[in-house]
């Protein structure tokens, strides 16, 4: 439930990878498998964050371009082993550029950070321009039919242990859902100091039909939509809409 705004805070950026780990068999493995299937050489990662997926793919030999608006998150990404092989670009969709890429990706539910139709259309247009004809775009967005946000505000506390910051407790408070946009606040308590940070965020939940229409308008043809990383169908209770589209 992270957001680009939320993780502009230095202390949260520093622990981002700890509080947002990828489980085995999920997104990084899916993207690596897709890259191999399409014979990708150059991959553009929009909203790459701290570069967890970006650097992983670079280590596998792909030419990676990581685009991220948060300078603090890019600093963490650049410090990773293998990050020197990545071309890092600070900025949003307007900085994507033309790379004749074989694959463009958005990970960590970045697609949901584009709240307005105009911002989403701009992002899809930029990614279309970054790809060669026949190149693929892959991203995931939470399935609104599942209404996952209703489970965030249960008062459940998650605890992780960061190697430097120590134990961190986190929980979520949902404010409202309106016109497909969910407003919420994530709370983080650092046990070692007793400090608590509150990070508000907003996410856009687009339906499968909305995603299809906007992709078509941007010049993409959907090839596959999955409901989870096990490649099941995108029907409840499957939590995701994992899209692979062709330019």
What's the SSE blueprint?
Elements: H1 10-14, H2 16-19, H3 27-37, E1 42-46, H4 52-59, E2 63-68, H5 71-78, E3 86-90, E4 101-106, H6 117-130, E5 131-142, H7 149-152, E6 158-162, E7 166-178, E8 181-190, E9 195-204, H8 208-217, E10 221-226, E11 240-246
Parallel strand pairs: 1-2, 1-4, 2-3, 4-5
Antiparallel strand pairs: 5-11, 6-7, 7-8, 8-9, 10-11
Helix pairs in contact: 3-4
What does this structure look like?
There is one protein chain. With 247 residues, this protein is an alpha/beta fold. The protein is built from 8 helices and 11 strands. It is globular, with a radius of gyration of 17 Å. The two termini are 29 Å apart. The longest helix is centred in the middle third of the chain and has 14 residues, at 117-130. It has 2 domains: 6-143 and 205-246, Vaccinia Virus protein VP39 (Rossmann fold, 3-Layer(aba) Sandwich); 146-203. A 7-stranded mixed sheet has the order 3-2-1-4-5-11-10, sandwiched between helices. A 4-stranded antiparallel sheet has the order 6-7-8-9. A hairpin with a 3-residue loop joins strand 6 and strand 7.
């Amino acid at each position: 439930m992270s957001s680009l705004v939320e993780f502009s805070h230095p202390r949260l950026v520093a622990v981002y990878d700890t509080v947002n780990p990828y489980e085995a068999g999920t997104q990084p493995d899916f993207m690596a498998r897709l890259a191999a299937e399409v014979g990708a050489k150059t991959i553009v990662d929009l909203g790459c964050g701290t570069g967890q997926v970006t650097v992983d793919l670079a280590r596998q030999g792909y030419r990676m371009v990581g685009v991220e608006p948060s300078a603090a998150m890019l600093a963490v990404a650049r410090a990773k082993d293998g990050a020197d092989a990545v071309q890092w670009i600070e900025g949003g969709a307007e900085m994507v550029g033309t790379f004749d890429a074989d694959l463009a990706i958005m990970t960590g539910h970045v697609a949901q950070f584009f709240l307005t139709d105009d911002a989403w259309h701009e992002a899809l247009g930029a990614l279309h321009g970054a790809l060669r004809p026949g190149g693929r775009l892959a991203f995931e967005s939470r399935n609104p039919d599942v209404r996952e946000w209703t489970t965030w505000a249960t008062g459940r506390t998650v605890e992780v242990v960061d190697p430097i910051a120590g134990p961190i407790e986190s929980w979520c408070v949902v404010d409202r859902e309106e016109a497909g946009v969910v407003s919420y606040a994530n709370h983080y308590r650092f046990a070692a100091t007793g400090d608590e940070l509150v990070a508000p965020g907003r996410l856009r939940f687009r339906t499968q039909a909305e995603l299809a229409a906007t992709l078509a308008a941007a010049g993409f043809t959907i090839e596959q939509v999955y409901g989870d990383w096990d490649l099941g169908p995108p029907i409840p209770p499957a939590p995701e809409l994992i899209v692979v589209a062709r330019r």
